[in-house]
């Protein structure tokens, strides 16, 4: 069992199993080649190149790693710049969308306001028309002839004629000239059966000599509504309607003028 000793076998592992990584790290950091302490010169020398190559390889790897790191850092910077730019762009888009929505909302509100205004104008117009319509005057009879005028003096009246006489057939329907409320509906001496309609402005319209009354006190009447019938009650010579107009319930004025002033042609 003799013979030349077997050539010393060296573990293929060129680096110290434990120190290897740390050494490589030191080398990479300092650039110095360190021989692991357990490795003898003999062991190191013949395969030193290989070991050294491996160290260098490690060093290269680390250098490459540093380069990679540096590149990665630049890449990272570029990426974060891009991300920042993207974020900014996204914020910008969001902001633009928000601004667009706000403009649309504002336009919608303006359109609604305009529409509301139009509606209110139409409503006001209708109200005005309704008011005019309510305030309009109509003639009290459809078919008639005028006889005595306002202010005439005759043996028939104590002083002067205080109204306008519409001659029409007995029992013909008398229509309210304007809208108002019936404040009197009764027999009144020489006036006979009399209806007083008081308008909103206080003007009184008197309808006299009726054969019968169609509405009672407190009744609201509109223009054209029947308030009674032509008759001969009171101081008369024939069937007719004696109409008086008394502004504010005071002295009578010429009904012809009043009717004319309300656009009528009696
Ligand atoms: Zn009269």
Polypeptide structure, described:
The chain has 2 domains: 14-103; 145-261, Glucose Permease (Domain IIA) (Distorted Sandwich). It has 4 helices and 10 strands; from the N terminus they run H-H-H-E-E-E-E-E-E-E-E-E-E-H. It is rod-shaped. The longest helix has 88 residues, at 48-135. The protein has 266 residues and is α+β, with helices and mostly antiparallel strands. Helix content is 42%, strand content 17%. The protein has helices at 19-30, 41-44, 48-135, 255-261, and strands spanning 145-146, 164-167, 173-175, 180-187, 193-199, 204-210, 212-213, 220-221, 226-229, 240-246. Bound molecules: zinc ion.
Ligands (ions, cofactors included) = zinc ion
What is the CATH architecture annotation of the largest domain? Distorted Sandwich
Q: Total strand count, please?
A: 10
Count helical runs. 4
CATH superfamily of the largest domain: Glucose Permease (Domain IIA)
Give me the side-by-side strand order of the main sheet.
1-2-10-6-5-4-8
């Amino acid at each position: 069992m003799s013979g030349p000793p077997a050539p010393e076998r060296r573990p293929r592992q060129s680096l110290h199993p434990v120190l290897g990584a740390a050494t490589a790290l030191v080398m990479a950091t300092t650039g110095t080649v360190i021989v692991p302490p357990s490795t003898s010169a003999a062991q190191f020398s013949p395969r030193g190149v290989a070991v050294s190559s491996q160290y260098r390889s490690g060093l290269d790897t680390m250098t490459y790693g540093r380069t990679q790191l540096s590149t990665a850092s630049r890449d990272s910077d570029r990426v974060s710049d891009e991300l920042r730019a993207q974020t900014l762009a996204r914020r910008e888009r969001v902001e633009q969308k928000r601004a667009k929505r706000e403009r649309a909302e504002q336009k919608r509100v303006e359109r609604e306001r305009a529409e509301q205004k139009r509606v209110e104008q139409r409503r006001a117009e209708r109200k005005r028309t309704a008011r005019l319509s309510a305030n309009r005057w109509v003639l009290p009879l459809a078919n008639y002839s005028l006889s005595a005028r306002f202010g005439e003096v005759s043996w028939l009246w104590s002083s002067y004629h205080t109204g306008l006489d519409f001659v029409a057939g007995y029992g013909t329907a008398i229509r309210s000239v304007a809208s108002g409320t019936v404040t009197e509906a009764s027999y009144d001496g020489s006036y006979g059966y009399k209806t007083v309609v008081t308008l909103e402005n206080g003007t009184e319209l008197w309808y006299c000599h009726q054969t019968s009354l169609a509405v009672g006190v407190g009744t609201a009447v509109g223009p054209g509504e029947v308030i009674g019938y032509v008759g001969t009650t009171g101081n008369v010579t024939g069937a007719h309607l004696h109409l008086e107009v008394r502004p504010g319930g005071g002295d009578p004025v010429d009904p012809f003028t009043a009717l004319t002033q309300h656009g009528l042609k009696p």
